[in-house]
Design a protein that fits this description.
This protein has about 375 residues and is an alpha/beta fold. It has 13 helices and 16 strands. It has a domain of about 260 residues: Alpha-Beta Barrel (TIM Barrel). It starts with a strand and ends in a 22-residue tail after the last strand.
């Protein structure tokens, strides 16, 4: 089984042997988080969160209860099947990242209704419903309409990806390039993999003048009908955008969420039957912002290595936007490239860090900086 987890890189999902001749092997996920916490604590940062691929939680590779006993929250990605959602909720995860926040809210509602103890009700009340790329199962990913849809489904967190443009802006997109699978040129000229634009080679202004990322390709429930996105339409008009589906960026996303609150609190949507709950939820929604950068020497499936700026530039752009936007209390930075997380903990200790992981063998590989790398051997 394989899983695409970072910038086009494909890693194999495999189990880790738990016993060697000399004795039990320290669990690599526990090793990572203990080392990450030691570093964060030394710099006045809070306890980091583990965000593992859901298959490693379901298989038992991730020692969920042991991690939680040490105070680590565990929020897996990306679960779209309702029964897997239900299984993970019952296993005790702290939240789930999903492309289908509508389905997750439905399952979570059923589990809350069936809860038999105050302790279980309290746990489920705090459950983190995170919309992956805004909820790409319902709208084109990482766009203002996708974030609007996530807010409409009352998610607790909007998850997204960031790169850095030529003007130092934290542009929101998953791939290292603005993908022709999702984007088209506004002028109607062909836009293909052959003339694709890498985020590091375009300014945020030119990206918003050049491309519209409204292609539907994820599944039958993914819609790009703008009548479903009235807040994004109104916001795009206010910001002077050529379309609500132009590539957006972190600072603009923060403005959009504030606009969404006002839209339902006192604007055109104030008489909507869901206005009050939407405004209240959006006023406290969190932002899980990923740095899309690969470790040195790691090649993508197109044979190319990293096509982004370096870790410090990512931190400058993203954390700078978080601070300037007044979202330090509502944002966290996540990554597979832990160099950026190390820098966040050292330079912006008030911003929480999320350690994204794939298969356990990744944690003993060059993907992980030596100071955090898991090692085989007895405890």
């Amino acid at each position: 089984m394989t899983r695409r987890i970072l910038g086009g890189v494909v890693l194999c999902v495999s189990s880790v042997v738990a016993v060697e001749a000399q004795g039990p092997v320290a669990n690599p996920y526990m090793q990572l988080m203990e080392k990450a916490w030691a570093h964060a604590r030394a710099h006045g940062a809070g306890k980091p969160v583990l965000s593992p691929v859901d298959s490693t939680v379901l298989s038992g590779e991730v020692p969920l209860k042991e991690l939680q006993a040490q105070g680590f929250r565990v929020v897996p990605w990306t679960t779209n099947d309702p029964e897997k959602m239900r299984t993970e909720i019952r296993m005790g995860v702290d939240g789930l990242i999903t492309d289908r926040p509508d389905l997750l809210q439905q399952v979570l509602g059923e589990e809350r209704a069936a809860a038999k103890s105050d302790e279980e009700r309290e746990r489920l009340a705090k459950f983190d419903v995170t919309a992956h790329r805004g909820g790409r199962g319902l709208r084109p990913e990482n766009t203002l309409p996708s974030f609007e849809d996530g807010l409409d489904h009352l998610v607790t967190t909007l998850e997204t990806d960031t790169g850095v443009t030529t003007d130092g802006v934290s542009l929101i997109w998953h791939d290292q390039f603005l993908n022709p699978e999702s984007c088209r040129r506004a002028d109607g000229q062909p836009y293909t993999m052959q003339n694709r634009v890498f985020t590091k080679d375009i300014s945020s202004t030119d990206a918003q003048k050049t491309l519209i990322c409204d292609k539907v390709h994820f599944g039958p429930e993914q819609k790009n009908d703008l009548s479903l996105s009235p807040v994004a339409v109104a916001f795009a008009k206010k910001e002077g955008l050529i379309s609500p589906y132009v590539p957006t960026y972190a600072a603009q996303l923060f403005r959009f969420v504030n606009f969404y609150v006002d839209y339902y609190r006192s604007g055109a949507g104030k008489n909507d039957p869901h206005a009050k709950e939407r405004a209240a939820n959006a006023a406290r929604v969190r932002f899980n912002l990923e740095t899309k950068i690969m470790p040195e020497g790691i090649a993508g499936d197109d044979g190319h290595k990293n096509h982004t700026v370096g870790p410090q530039a990512f931190v400058n752009a993203l954390c700078g936007a978080i601070v300037k936007g007044g979202m330090v209390e509502r944002a966290e930075v996540q990554s597979f490239d832990y160099r950026t997380l190390i820098l966040v903990e050292e330079q912006y200790p008030k911003i929480p860090t999320y350690y994204l992981t794939g298969p356990a063998k990744m944690l003993t590989s060059p993907w992980v900086p030596e100071q955090l790398r898991a090692t085989a051997g007895a405890r």
